[in-house]
Amino acid sequence: MNEKREAVIGVVTASDRASAGIYEDESGPAIAAYLQKALTSPFRIVRRIIPDGFESVRDTLIDLSDNIGCDLIVTTGGTGPAPRDLTPEATLAAAPRELPGFGELMRKVSLTQTPTAILSRQVAAHRGKCLVINLPGKPAAIELCLDAVMPAVPYCLDLIGAAYIETDPARVAAFRPKAK
Ligand SMILES: Nc1ncnc2c1ncn2[C@@H]1O[C@H](COP(=O)(O)OP(=O)(O)OP(=O)(O)O)[C@@H](O)[C@H]1O
Ligand SMILES: Nc1nc2c(c(=O)[nH]1)N[C@H]1C(S)=C(S)[C@@H](COP(=O)(O)O)O[C@H]1N2
After folding, report:
1. What string of H, E and C letters represents the secondary structure of 31-94?
2. Tag placement on the chain: N or C end, fewer CB within 10 Å?
3. How many angstroms does the Cα of residue 23 sit away from the middle of ligand 1?
């Protein structure tokens, strides 16, 4: 079993306007609130609100992974096709080993909410012992996407050697295949 210690979880909002204070970031707080409800093992959240852009997102992810020691980073925003939407490219630059099933599943569930779900290029990937998951910027996407992928996150963290996390089964039915 992986190390039972406080997990460190990064929550990154990539948005030109939210980072400039033009509108209030709702999606970062929605991710934090989701984690508070879903996880029962100890963790602390490290928040960042940054402008869109390749270097901005890449450097933030590398800092959170390598210097802050995040086990998991959840990003929101910058996944669409607009010129400054570069969160997926930046994620794969920081975390080159992609887990394509995450993006596939999140787009599938998002399509039940909106036909423009196919515009999100969101990915998940890991940088060593740190898993990075992209979410779209819209606050309505947060719970839907996290509900879809969270059952597989604890076991994914086990496999990459990150902290051991536990979920509230009434909220998220985490699945860990039984050891042989
Ligand atoms: N973090 C967020 N918090 C609250 N609302 C958001 C957030 N991100 C996006 N939205 C809402 O979704 C709409 C469309 O999102 P989109 O990704 O196009 O963001 P945006 O506002 O264009 O971002 P940026 O300012 O970075 O260009 C926004 O106009 C806003 O109403
Ligand atoms: N669940 C969900 N997924 C969604 C949306 C949404 O409202 N809900 N918006 C879509 C839209 S309109 C866009 S442009 C893309 C990318 O959004 P982003 O650039 O804010 O990440 O996410 C898509 N995925």
Report:
1. HHHHHHHHECCCEEEEEEEECCCHHHHHHHHHHHHHHCCCCEEEEECCCCCCCCCCHHHHHHHH
2. C
3. 8
